[in-house]
What does this fold into?
Amino acid sequence: MSSIPHDQVPGHAVDHGRAHDDHAHHPGGIMRWVTTTNHKDIGTLYLWFSFIMFIAGGCLALTIRTELFHPGLQIVDPEFFNSLTTLHGLIMIFGAIMPAAVGFANWQVPLMIGAPDMAFGRLNNWSFWLLPFAAALLFGSFFVPGGAAAGGWTLYAPLSVQAGMGMDMTIFAVHIMGASSIMGSINIITTILNLRAPGMTMMRMPLFVWTWLITAYLLIAVMPVLAGAVTMLLTDRHFGTSFFNAAGGGDPVMFQHIFWFFGHPEVYIMILPSFGIVSTILPAFSRKPLFGYASMVYATSSIAILSFIVWAHHMFTVGMPAAGQLFFMYATMLIAVPTGVKVFNWVATMWKGSMTFETPMLFAIGFIFLFTMGGFTGLVLAITPVDIQLQDTYYVVAHFHYVLVAGSLFAFFGGVYYWLPKWSGRMYNEKLGEWHFWLTMIFFNVTFFPMHFLGLAGMPRRVPDYATQFTDWNMVATVGAYGFGLSQLLFFYIVLSCIRNGPPAPAKPWEGADTLEWTLPSPLPYHTFETPPVIK
Amino acid sequence: MQTATPQRQTQARAAQKTASLRVALVLLAIAAVFFGGVILAQYSGAPRVGIGVLGFAILGFLLAAIGRNLRK
It folds into this structure.
């Protein structure tokens, strides 16, 4: 079972954190954050960093949308537009979504398994503090001769072999972020395997912990592959090798194979922790245990394994034998089965539950609705002949934003609202939280739903100009994008006002919440579970 | 509830630290092999075969890693 009833956790463990709060020795001011090895501090750093990157990446997106408001060239030249799309993708994926997921893991994994901290505190600190340097490299590349990388976040050869100095900075940034991810994953896996409280067997772990365990394995498996690919790119650029340089006998298509061998599991790296958050929120507000816990674990594992055998569906137009096309098409469709199991279980969890609709629950339900839509458009794109028509159109842009924005981001918002009372010891403004949800929900759909129509009508992605028949829906999408962006300022205000002067939160503000962290006081003491609780 | 002596607690903590270090080193070695493997595969004359071998190695690693932990 994933949930731990309160009466199964001995009282001494419950009160232990409070008793030891006076042991919270740490430096004050900036040095607290620079030198911290505490999982809660590092979780906070990750979450703030990801929010800053989210706003920065969002500003790039708004510049893109402003350019696309009308056909013709308005505010940026085509080369800079390509840099904007490239950096928007890289920053949102490596700077916003992945660090946010690691932030949640840092806060919640030790608390949910009854561990005092992460297994390697200093490694944890180092994993985080690499990220600002990687972000500085990415943003700094805008100001070097030749500008930032402009070949798309996929860094396809041969364009990336020929690009300027900005590409080198991007490659180094990817290396640094990859190293950070690998170190973080090692830490998370070791923590989960070795530091669980007595009685916390694998099949009693909350699903969020399970999804992160599987995500961490995925990261260990694929981040080195990406690092290898960009290393070869670097040697092709500067050391005379020809891995991907056709002029020297290399194979540019091989880069695409290697990249997507990383890239498709990467999609699940971004979405699996969100599955875990939603699987935590839904039972709490349905006041029922998660339906089909074991099947959720197996479905998550199946998704992870299948993610390794579908990469070439990103490359149907590159050309491959019919047997290869059929294999990758059917393998991709197969992922709908475990994903369907998850969606079914989420709905079944809510079925006949005593549901209430506080902000975390709204975001969780919004997640299910929109992620399922994104999943269905993924199925459409899995069909080879359809994909060949829709490749590199706005339909693809709509699809992956439904998966990654309405999927990952909605779950992260839900997670923040759900755990913020525990983290900060204060309640957020529920009414404003609901406003944030509805504004985000409406403007998200205003922005991205029209992109399905644009894609089906043939509008290509990554272009600063377009034919006039696409104008109307582009205008709608741009208005939606501004609304969506401004709605996130409301989120910033809600979090800030909650932390500064929200009313005190009880130890367990959500009636149906039953994981270990809710047995601790709010706000959480600096050190928790120094003596592990015993789970009976 | 058994009360552990400070000495026993120290021993348990040291054992846990060693076990954690062992897990971390194994994971790091796997990451290093995948990193080197994807580059070395390019030198094998048939890179697609090399990548295929690497892919199955990763799949096997995932199956073994998750399967092994499920028994606990």
